[in-house]
Amino acid sequence: MTEPTTVQNDDVVVFLAGGNGRASAPLVPVPQSDAAVNVADLAVTRGDGVFESIGVVGGRLIELPRHLARLAHSAELLELPPPDLAAFEAAAHTALAAHAPAPELLVKLFHSRGVETPAHTIDGPTGWVQVLEGADHTAARRDGVRVVLLDRGYRSDIAQTAPWLLQGAKTLSYALNKAALREAARRDADDVVFVSTDGVLLEGPTANVVVRHGDVFRTPRTDLGILAGTTQAAFFDTVRAQGLTAEEAVLTPDDLTTADAAWLCSSGRLLAPIRSLDGAPLPVDAHFTAHVLTQAFGLPT
Amino acid sequence: MTEPTTVQNDDVVVFLAGGNGRASAPLVPVPQSDAAVNVADLAVTRGDGVFESIGVVGGRLIELPRHLARLAHSAELLELPPPDLAAFEAAAHTALAAHAPAPELLVKLFHSRGVETPAHTIDGPTGWVQVLEGADHTAARRDGVRVVLLDRGYRSDIAQTAPWLLQGAKTLSYALNKAALREAARRDADDVVFVSTDGVLLEGPTANVVVRHGDVFRTPRTDLGILAGTTQAAFFDTVRAQGLTAEEAVLTPDDLTTADAAWLCSSGRLLAPIRSLDGAPLPVDAHFTAHVLTQAFGLPT
Predict the structure, then answer these.
(1) Contacts of residue A80 in chain B, CB cutoff 8 Å?
(2) I need a labelling partner for A162 at 20 to 30 A (CA). Which of A57, A115, B214, B295 fits?
(3) What are B151's strand-pairing partners?
(4) Is CATH 3.30.470.10 the classification given to domain B12-132?
(5) Looking at the predicted complex, does its ipTM rise above 0.85?
(6) Contact state of A39 with B128 under an 8 Å Cβ cutoff
(7) Between the CA of residue A212 and those of A190, A296, B179, B278, what are the distances in Å?
């Protein structure tokens, strides 16, 4: 007898072996509604872990190696035990195979420090993979999103001067990113681009920024305390393959307002044109966006 | 038949009724090792919730009303549904009664936004109480702790200018506080006091700061983007009852280096004298500290 390998009417979770933070058997796909972590897991009590969200189009995991590399890098910044990347990859495929098929899915990898025991030791790490159906991004990809600039409160050199602030790590301590999106909604916008206190363009709460001026595409440098974009990297690969220029740079809000086109890049939504900034319209290149979505990510035209 | 009300050889968890993030029955004390939250709870995936840690000395919850008020305030800053404070109080007493007695315990209250369902709705909030045995703080209370100053990266007016950064809320997004403590250990110290980019003394990762100059006790103002200290407030009550002066102020690192005595105040450790700052010794008033620990918190002499 083997375990059932398809989960009906629910998202799917697979726990990695090792660590004992899990409340479900490892390596076996379980419905999300049955998948739980111990209340004393540091993911729960301190947001003390790292994660990745990977887009899946037509069953294919997009930019998996870049996501695995980033998970390992985030873990290093938090001084977590190194994640077992082969185990995460295997669990991702197991979970994906157990999920009801869909044109697009999202695979999330979670790697927490583990469970704080009553004896004040840490039993960990805890690792798991979740496969879920993302929201419908059709409108955002086609029509674009309304963006506001918000102060991130930090200087652009913060990752070098104060590494304990963990800028550049994708941690489970994400409450402020959700708060920034609520602030955007209050301002009648869909999304946010953060700006440093010294006036440098950074990133969105869950996305990287790309601006186009003529044949030159630019994105903020990753030494500015931001995440290295995986979707942005795939976008740049496609741009370069067309003989256009793509580079990292120090950008300011002026580079957004003067852009011929600008995008937010993220794993679920992939590319969303920025169609307004603080209420002022920005040009949207719908044709080019659709072209890249097909070329780089395999979305149907 | 009633449920067993004492848990053996483990810490204790009680889930509140309502919300369905819990994997255990509500209102019934369960061993921590059996208490789990759903993997899709936003406490797990985003650190999107708030908490309180309450000291318990001789069975008495210290400063419970101030902790409940702060939980509600933190929830407001995160735009969470208001926590049911009466339910939290009842659950705290239930959990405490079920824990094996100890001279000191710690009661933690957790209030998360809830579980993100496959349909992208939120089923919540999720609330629970955990009772645990804290670490042994005898040496820290008596001999003091070695503290380093670390840059918090923010200006001291950040709570007013950028409320979406959630400064002043006690959120489950605590990874950077743990990272700061690791940085302290690297510098051969026990704890941290954060300083703003404009040179203002803020708070520790899990504690408030109090400095004494003669008969005047001061702590950083809560409009500086820091938590209102519950232990510090009880300390100040005791100080004022003795006819001494206790006040909120804008302090700088110089106020620490010139202090006649200084303390970190937190719910588990209560008062820890600061015995050195960035390696330079500070005076420790062991007699006065012991006096306040007894007067304000009921610790045996």
Answers:
(1) none
(2) A115
(3) B195
(4) yes
(5) yes
(6) yes
(7) 21, 17, 37, 47
User: How close B249 comes to chain A (CA, Å)?
Assistant: 23
pLDDT of residue A2: 43
Residue whose C-alpha is closest to residue B206's, from B191, B221, B219: B191
Cα–Cα distance, A224 to A219 (Å, whole number): 11
Angle between helices A85-98 and A64-77 (to 10 degrees): 130
Q: What is the mean pLDDT of residues A250-276?
A: 98
B66-77 pLDDT tens trace: 999 999 999 999
Domain with CATH 3.20.10.10 in chain B: 138-297
pLDDT tens sequence across B129-169 = 999 998 899 999 999 999 999 999 999 999 999 999 999 99
Both tokens assigned to B279: 């390696």
Provide the shortest C-alpha distance from residue A37 to chain B (in Å). Answer: 5
The single-letter DSSP state of residue B4 is -
**Token reading at A6:** 């398809």
Span B223-239, average pLDDT? 97
CATH 3.30.470.10 maps onto chain B at: 12-132
Assign domain A138-297 to a CATH class. Answer: alpha beta
Contact A10, A32 (CB under 8 A): yes
Partner residue facing A175 (CB), from B128, B172, B197:
B172
